[in-house]
Amino acid sequence: MADERPGLVPPPGPGRDPARARFWFIAAHRIVGAALVVLGMMAMQGTLDWGKGVGKVLAIVGLIDFFVIPVVFARMWKSLPK
What we know:
mainly alpha
């Protein structure tokens, strides 16, 4: 019987592991989040000529992408109790 919760990935085909894909997706979000924080800090310091406002926005979005988004996806993809 299929689960009707939103956000669940359909059953894997042969040779596909959805847990591995989810792990790399979450890891990629953490890497992108860290890069956004670094770029935001550089913009706030004036190293990049993007303006301090843009730097603050990038840093905040990067922190959210690093800390919040992986938790949201992990909860969304959590296995159902048996």
